[in-house]
Amino acid sequence: MPVPRRFDRRPPERDTTRINERIRVPQVRLIGADGEQLGIVDINDALKRAQEAELDLVEVAPGSKPPVTRLLDYSKYKYEQEQKQKQARKHQQQVNIREIKLRPKIATHDYETKKGHVERFLKHRDKVKVTIMFRGREQAHPERGRDLLQKLFEDLGGLAVIESAPLQEGRNMSMLLGPSKEVDKIVGESQGDEPAPADDASVPADDAAAAPDDASAEAS
Q1: 60 — phi, psi (to 5°)?
Q2: For the segment 78-120, what is each residue's pLDDT rounded down to a tens digit?
Q3: Residue 126: CB partners within 8 Å, gap ≥ 6?
């Protein structure tokens, strides 16, 4: 049976900034178009000055007594603010959390491959969740998992900081690594790294449960 579609019945957000005739107070503190302080004036006088200058009277500090207003081209001002917000969002760095799975008895070659993936993720400023998967009698030796996680952290050579210490939950033990402050410097000295190969190591943490085990997950 199809699920009925839900409609967003919330009214669209509207601009709550008071401008021109929407400013309903007897007096305002007025700032000119060039930032000059014009003092406290009657609202009608302020509106007249705005009309003569072909600008808007915009309330910029409604909580003040009297409210502070300014003469400006509000459409242009609003557009410029929207562009600044877009640029700010554009430069915001999105942090991804990757997941790497290891076995306590991982082979040396597989370990080096996994370590390479972790290095590349950190150099791309992603966080990495490293998970040790215990099977059967391996669960009786959690210290082997902690030792492996510590070895990995030390082998990363300053690329990582431990954001969450090793924590065992059921048959798995996990540690969260984040890029260190030295990443920019280290990356600058080691240009030429290739992107991480498209295997299970490049699966985000949310989808990692669906990733197939590889050579490092052979039965002990």
Answers
A1: -105, -15
A2: 898 889 888 887 766 677 899 999 999 999 999 999 999 999 9
A3: 95, 96, 97, 98, 179
CA distance readout (Å), 141 to 153, 154, 175 = 20, 21, 17
What whole-number distance in Å separates Cα of residue 94 and Cα of residue 131? 22
- Looking up tokens 């491959």 gives 113
Structure tokens at 125: 């400023």
Using alpha carbons, list the distances in angstroms from residue 42 to 17, 22, 38, 164: 19, 15, 11, 60
Give the angle 211-214-217 at the CA atoms, nearest 5°. Answer: 105
126-184 pLDDT, tens digit per residue, is: 999 999 999 988 888 999 999 999 999 999 988 999 999 999 888 999 999 999 888 77
> 């090793």: which residue's tokens?
166
According to the CATH classification, is domain 97-217 in 3.30.110.10? yes
Domain boundaries, the chain: 20-74, 97-217
Tokens of 162: 């431990």
- Output the 3-class SS for 19-68: EHHHCCCCEEEEECCCCCEEEEEEHHHHHHHHHHCCCEEEEEECCCCCCE
- Please give the Cα distance from 130 to 208 (Å, whole number): 11
Helix, strand, coil fractions of the chain, as percent rounded to 5: 40, 25, 35
CATH of domain 20-74: 3.10.20.80
